[in-house]
Predict the structure of Copine-8.
Amino acid sequence: MFGLGKPAGQQEPGRSGGLPKMASVGDFNVLSSSIPATKVELSVSCRNLLDRDTFSKSDPICVLYTQAIGNKEWREFGRTEVIDNTLNPDFVRKFIMDYFFEERENLRFDFYDVDSKSPNLSKHDFLGQMFCTLGEIVGSQGSRLEKSIVGIPGKKCGTVIVTAEELGCCRDSVLMQFCANKLDKKDFFGKSDPFLVFHRSNEDGSFTICHKTEVVKNTLNPVWQAFKISVRALCNGDYDRTIKVEVYDWDRDGSHDFIGEFTTSYRELSRGQSQFNVYEVINPKKKGKKKKYVNSGTVTLLSFLIETEVSFLDYIKGGTQINFTVAIDFTASNGNPSQPTSLHYMNPYQLNAYGMALRAVGEIIQDYDSDKMFPALGFGARLPPDGRVSHEFALNGNPQNPYCHGIDGVMEAYYRSLKSVQLYGPTNFAPVINHVARYAASVKDGSQYFVLLIVTDGVISDMAQTKESIVNASKLPMSIIIVGVGPAEFDAMEELDGDVVRISSRGRFAERDIVQFVPFRDYIDRSGNHVLSMARLAKDVLAEIPEQFLSYMRVRGIKPSPAPPPYTPPIHVLQTQI
């Protein structure tokens, strides 16, 4: 074994598994989505590698690289062990990676025949490489991707099999309840109004807030309601990591008084209700000043229950397909496509805003769709030959079969239709939403989920009908992403988003929140780096999809299908010469 670089599974700098720092206790809101959805473990096997050794077989190693979003630079993530004398290695050392549905994580697997103890890869024989995305591995049947190794012209370099397995600790949640006794009295008139704030420690010793209980008014012996938190958020899956709990007295003006604190860990808490889980609340300032200070009260764990959640990846692994449909706004307010001021302007050197939004979202979602065939629709245009206005026409000109192959096929059909249709109006969303809803209504068994991407320049004409369509669609296995391009005011879109007020139509409320709206202008990188703009856009619009997907499955009581049986590589019998 020679001196390896980073151990397999070490995190890249800048890709923390943690939450952003919160400003203060008072304004802690919902958890940010920057906690990775989960961690996956990648196993690598090869078949029929090139033989570079004269008297024996190759001694292969696999080196994994990840790619930075902005500058496209490849960075080494980790290495497997070296396996001597085989062309069919099953590497034991795994790569453990953070998995985000909403990010495109480009991977490169390089293979070398190791000839010496040197850690310098240029001193060893190159056996080829394989490029893919993490989504491609996860989205393959059984989360098992088999691909040819390339990179040496004129040679067959064999195949690589990469399997992704979700790590178990990531899907556990804990239901906990705490009470306190004899807390310090902080209020002049009345008793304290206590609440607890939980922080998990980070690698660098800092702390990140991860949960805040409700306030129990006017008592020094509060019993807080039980609360549920993911193990990932509580300790990032590390059972021995310090968890700091602070006790505060709530004040209306936000200047909450600090009562004291204690530390624990997931492992300690998991012992449940016992003498080990009664904690002294200590106020370090008081302790330093008063010789007779004992504590500022005690906090006791009343109950601790572990629940294993089914995850988004369980459904994907069980074969659920994500079907992606695109709908593009061809109304006249976009401007004449032949003019550079138009939002549909076909610049030969760079994508327009519509193209960027399509690529950003489509390139990630296509990894979860096995046939890579996407219906692409347009609305608000006059169609040849008779100039009739249509609000759901096929971009490829074939209403019987509006499917395009891959995101490249969608882009091609979009550019082609710009040359043949006349931009017109009005801006009606309901027809394309109903179009996808008809398909979603026909498969409610959890085997398929539909995502509709609408790219529009803004002012919607059929608000009442669109609301009705969304309320109806909220019962179906579908989500809607709306990307607003251009400078318009998008107030009506915010209403459709339903994050603040759940959308309703004629007194009926949407069963669940299925719409995510973002204005593209919020994501434009100031330095003009379109790759970064697209990555930021995709991250925000896709981050809600796994939770919307799970909310549908939960409401309908649909469990994931069992994954296909795990792949067992064929055993190669070594021929021994007599």
User: Anything to note?
Assistant: DSSP finds twelve helices and 28 strands in the chain. The two ends are 31 Å apart (CA to CA). Residues 404 and 410 are 5 Å apart (CA to CA). Residues 1-34, 573-578 have pLDDT under 50 and may be disordered.
